[in-house]
Specification:
Layout lengths: L3 E6 L28 H13 L4 E6 L3 H6 L9 E4 L4 H16 L4 E6 L3 E3 L1 H17 L4 E6 L10 E5 L2 E6 L4 H10 L2 E11 H11 L1 H12 L9 H5 L7 H6 L5 E5 L3 E3 L7 H7 L10
Parallel strand pairs: 1-2, 1-4, 2-3, 6-10
Antiparallel strand pairs: 4-9, 5-11, 6-9, 7-8, 7-9
Length: 287
C-alpha cells in the first residue's frame, strides 16, 4: 500500500498583488470569506487525501513566523523553512530527497498554498484520479490542468493529446492565447504535480542533476536528519521553476483535467473576482 504525502508550497511573496501582499502579509495568508485563509483552505481540502500528519508546508525563513501562526496548532511542527527563495524546482527537489529518506515508495502531491478552489469535493475527486494514475504509472508525473474559461496571457498552457502532455507553453501573448483556446486541446497549467517519489527523483536526476547532488550532499552532512546543513549551500542553488527545469523536458508527463473552479489569486487584474472570494473587511487595502 503506497502512502501519500502532500507538499504545500507557501513561500509566495505575492509581488503582483503588492502593496496588498508582501513581507507584512504573504499571499497564502490572504483572508477568505468564511474565516479561512488561502493556506488554511488548502490544508482543509488536502487532509482527506493524505491525512493530517503527512502534510508538509514549505516556506522561507523570512515568512516562517507568519506562516506558522497561520497553521493549526497540531500542524506547526510540519513546517519546513528554506533558507532563501530558490524557486519551485529547488523546493520540490528538497522535499523529494527528504521524503525519499522517510519512505522510498511514497507518492507526493505538490500543491500551491495560494490558490482559491471550489468546491473542495471536486478537488478531492480530481486529485484522487491523478493519484490513481500516478500509482499505476510509477514513471509518470501528472499535472492538474484547468479547462480555460477565456483566452488569458496570465497563465501557462498545457497542450495535450488525450492524457499525455505534448507541450508546455509559457504565458503567451493574447493573440496566441486566443488561438490556443480556439483550437482546443489545451489546459491552463495550475502548478499542481502528482507522482511517486521514484518519478520525481528520476525526472530531477535526469534534468537537474547538480541541484539534486547539492541537496543530497547537504542532507547527508546533517547528523540529526534535519535540514540544518542546507543553509551554507542553499544560496548557491539556481532560482528556477520546476516546470522549466524538469517538466518541460521530462518524457513522461500526463495531465488530469480539473473538475473544480479555480483562481490563482495572481494580480490586481483579477480584482473583480478576488473581491468576491476575499474577506475585504479584513484587508488593509491601499488607498
Amino acid at each position: 500500500m503506497r502512502r501519500w504525502y502532500a507538499v504545500i508550497m507557501a513561500g509566495g511573496l505575492g509581488q503582483r498583488l503588492q502593496p496588498l501582499t508582501g513581507r507584512h502579509l504573504p499571499k497564502p495568508l490572504l483572508p477568505l470569506k468564511g474565516g479561512r485563509t488561502l493556506l488554511s483552505a488548502t490544508l482543509a481540502r488536502t487532509r482527506p487525501l493524505v491525512g493530517t500528519k503527512r502534510i508538509w508546508v514549505v516556506t522561507t525563513t523570512a515568512f516562517a513566523a507568519r506562516i506558522r501562526q497561520g497553521l493549526p496548532a497540531g500542524s506547526r511542527q510540519q513546517l519546513i523553512s528554506e533558507p532563501a527563495m530558490r524557486g519551485t524546482a529547488t523546493c520540490i527537489a528538497l522535499m523529494t530527497s527528504w521524503l525519499a529518506r522517510q519512505d522510498a515508495q511514497a507518492g507526493i502531491l505538490v500543491l500551491p498554498a495560494d490558490h482559491w478552489i471550489a468546491p473542495a469535493r471536486r478537488f478531492i475527486t480530481t486529485l484522487r484520479q491523478a493519484m490513481r494514475h500516478a500509482h499505476t504509472h510509477p514513471e509518470t508525473l501528472v499535472c492538474v490542468g484547468i479547462p480555460p474559461t477565456q483566452p488569458s496571457s496570465d497563465y501557462g498552457y498545457l497542450r495535450h493529446r488525450r492524457r499525455r502532455v505534448a507541450q508546455f507553453i509559457e504565458k503567451p501573448p493574447r493573440h496566441r492565447a486566443q488561438a490556443l483556446v480556439r483550437r482546443g486541446q489545451v489546459l491552463w497549467n495550475a502548478g499542481m504535480f502528482v507522482g511517486t517519489v521514484h518519478a520525481f527523483r528520476t525526472a530531477l536526476e535526469r534534468h537537474a542533476p547538480r541541484l539534486v547532488q547539492t541537496i543530497e550532499r547537504a542532507l547527508s552532512q546533517s547528523r540529526d536528519g534535519s535540514m540544518r546543513g542546507l543553509t551554507r549551500l542553499y544560496h548557491r542553488l539556481p532560482v528556477t521553476s520546476f516546470d522549466r527545469a524538469v517538466m518541460e523536458r521530462y518524457a513522461h508527463v500526463d495531465v488530469v483535467p480539473a473538475r473544480f473552479h479555480w483562481c490563482d489569486v495572481g494580480s490586481w487584474a483579477a480584482w473583480p473576482v478576488l473581491r468576491t472570494i476575499l474577506d475585504v473587511e479584513r484587508l488593509a487595502l491601499p488607498r
